[in-house]
Amino acid sequence: MTHAKTDAIIDNWKTNAGLDLSAEQEQQFKTWFAGAAERFHARREAGKEVIKQLFVAAESNDGAKAEELLSKLREGFRQLSVGREKALDEFDAILKPEQRARIVVYAVKQAKEAGRPVEQLIDSLFLDAGESN
Predict the structure, then answer these.
(1) How far is CA 8 from the centre of its chain?
(2) Which end of the chain has fewer CB atoms < 10 Å from its terminal CB, N or C?
(3) DSSP characters for 22-91?
């Protein structure tokens, strides 16, 4: 993730969510965000590759290969859930409860205005981050 993208997200949260961070928290948050975005991007790319292979298996009527790839895909979804939980635990360790509450309330408001689930909004932050490298 570029520093500019992270700075823009933090500035947005400071302005629109009333988030107040110490210098140490801001640095920890930037490091956390970069790592989380990198992991999210890697999982996304791995998933794309499995889908490509699954397409080939389906086109060639290779049931055994399709089953293997579907299992990989399912495991990828499990890992995505575990990764989200880990990222949230790390996020929680950086910020105080009132800071996290401000971000969550703001994210819910943004998601509602956009007509999207909060999870999709959060994932899109990491998705945009991974693609901006």
Answers:
(1) 16
(2) C
(3) -HHHHHHHHHHHHHHHHHHHHHHHHHHHHHHHHHHHHHTT-HHHHHHHHHHHHHHHHHHHHHHHHHHHHH
